[in-house]
Amino acid sequence: MLVDDLLYNLDALKIFIDISLGLGKANEICDTAKNGLEAVQMVLNDCNQRNHSSYKIIFMDGNMPRMDGYEAAERIRHYFFTKNL
Asked: How far apart are CA 38 and CA 72, in angstroms?
């Protein structure tokens, strides 16, 4: 998952992933969120549907509106801890 409030940064991360993995499919394999709150909701919804997280890595900006990346990461970690994930 890629999380950033700036579209330019999300596009740059997708290009980086495409080049690094050599797949050219970042648009297909990466979910995106515009802020930490949206990312937390996406992760929790994913976990509730599957009983585990399908997200292997989350690239998250630290400074975003609504909820910054630090708070979002703390909430996701707390959720994983309480659910033994």
From this structure: 9
